[in-house]
């Protein structure tokens, strides 16, 4: 029997529960997950393209994946990921990314909220899914994300996301929604710096900051002639 070395992906995703019926399995779950992750990191988004990517890289994947029936079809990729527990998948993915991609000092980590396209269903009165994500500008990879509860907003989701991240030495950027005292305190507590948009939704802080800049401008420009 030929032994195959374990990949980092296999070590972190091996405990995900396989939702498929045993007798219907033709492809190993870890093979499906590994090919998908590699494809997505390469900038591929659609299932048909993920299948093509796997076929193009088949010889390379075969070095460490079983692939007993070759590369899965795009329908198989789609069905399996729709059936997987999203919370389990996210937990494994976050653990993997944080072990492989270490945040370096001064690295910019943007945190932003986005609504997933085609995640709504009018017929079933299903509202669109809104996610808050942290992005590594250096590694071009999502470091973590949380779903915004339908009864909440980004203000409550951001602290939950921050708790999942190792931010020491990084610079976290946020839009005006994240300009909240508790969020700033949490970023500082996690030994990171921040750059946050300030708008008039924080009227007191906005006016104080505006006045500070006006005074600074007068002081530094005094005595200048143009």
TrEMBL record:
GO terms for biological process: DNA transposition. It comes from the Bacteria. Residues 105-203 form the Transposase IS4-like domain. Residues 11-97 form the H repeat-associated protein N-terminal domain. It holds the Pfam family DDE_Tnp_1_assoc. GO terms for molecular function: DNA binding; transposase activity. NCBIfam families: transpos_ISAs1 (NF033564). This is Transposase, ISAs1 family.
